[in-house]
Design brief:
Distance between the termini: 47 Å
Helix content: over 70%
Number of strands: 2
Shape: flat
Number of helices: 11
Structural class: mainly alpha
């Protein structure tokens, strides 16, 4: 057994003044630990999106009709409320799990040696996004699930997924200046792919706001537009994203690109195919809740896949050891 060192008054004062620096002075995590912490934050950012979708799809959006309390005078559901309250309250509690995952990522990044300010900032960016979206979630409840606030809630969660994905990638590489692995033409095509994917996600929120799952069994305002018409626009954008991905794969093969970008593009193409199948099946079966939930999960995976393609177009010197990153892949390719 290793004894726990005693803290003197000076240590206690230092811990209260700057707890992150206090921990960093006494703990140096392995690179793999930092990578796993960043991955945990990414996984939880996806989980909170899916569970938030489950709240809406089970008509539990107003299961806790107020915020920050569940009911007037009670932070938790009361016996008078239904199972919808338990679902909504459970999703609120998962926010604390998300905060714990993001907190672990911040602490691990801050304690890594040498200190990487850029990585720590990505962790703090996630924290503030979580706090902002928690407040926005409260506003969503207070305004009775207004579809525009619901859309903003999802888009802010998508931004959280993006920052978490970038932090996970940055934890697997060094802090050297990025060196491009492909030419300008490929980079421009990928940026078109990113823009089209963002537009696809944004239009998807309009489908949700006009569709048959308002989030509560009572009267809820909807976006006054035919959801079927918007769904067709959404499908056209999906085909554009698929076409851009397919064109990117051929272009990468033509220029003999490293294995990293090729592998990430292949992965994205497979995710898009699966997402497309789910999308068409849910459309022709009139949006069953289970398939809509799977489609929301697929939306997160598509977005992560697009970002991984974008980040695979460059490498940074001094890659961290542990999980393989683009630098290792390109090194094997150029060997």
């Amino acid at each position: 057994m290793v004894g726990v060192p005693k803290l003197n008054r000076a240590d206690a004062t230092a811990a209260l003044r700057n707890p992150l620096a206090f921990i960093a002075d006494r703990w140096t995590p392995e690179p793999r630990t930092v990578q796993r912490a960043a991955l945990a934050a990414l996984v939880m950012s996806v989980v909170i999106v899916v569970t938030g979708g489950a709240v809406r799809l089970t008509a539990s959006g107003l299961g806790c009709p107020t915020w920050p309390e569940c009911t007037d005078g009670s932070l938790t559901p009361t016996h008078a409320l239904s199972y919808h309250s338990a679902i909504e309250f459970g999703n609120r509690m998962l926010t604390y799990v998300l905060c714990a995952a993001v907190g672990w990522a911040i602490i691990a990044a801050r304690s890594e040696k040498p200190y990487r300010r850029s990585l720590t900032r990505l962790g703090w960016a996630q924290f503030w996004l979580v706090m902002s979206n928690a407040i926005l979630g409260g506003i969503v409840v207070l305004v009775g699930l207004n579809p525009y606030t619901v859309a903003a809630h999802f888009l802010l969660a998508t931004a959280l997924v993006a920052v978490a994905a970038v932090m996970w990638q940055r934890a697997r590489e060094g802090d050297g200046a990025p060196r491009p692995l492909v030419g300008k033409a490929v980079q421009q095509l990928v940026w078109f792919l990113v823009a089209a994917s963002l537009l696809l996600i944004a239009v998807g929120t309009v489908v949700t706001g006009a569709g048959p799952h308002p989030g509560d069994s009572g009267k809820v305002d909807r976006i006054h537009i035919s959801w079927e018409t918007v769904a067709k626009v959404h499908a056209v954008l999906a085909w554009i994203v698929v076409t851009l991905t397919f064109a990117l794969w051929f272009l990468l093969k033509a220029v003999d690109a490293p294995k990293g970008p090729l592998a990430r593009t292949r992965d994205l193409f497979l995710i898009l195919l699966a997402q497309g199948v789910i999308g068409y099946v849910q459309y022709f079966t009139h949006l069953p809740a289970v398939l809509v939930g799977l489609h929301m999960l697929g939306s997160c995976l598509v977005w992560i896949g697009v970002l991984r393609v974008l980040l695979s177009l460059r490498e940074r010197a001094g890659a961290a050891t542990g999980l393989p990153g683009p630098s290792a892949e390109s090194a094997l390719t150029n060997a």
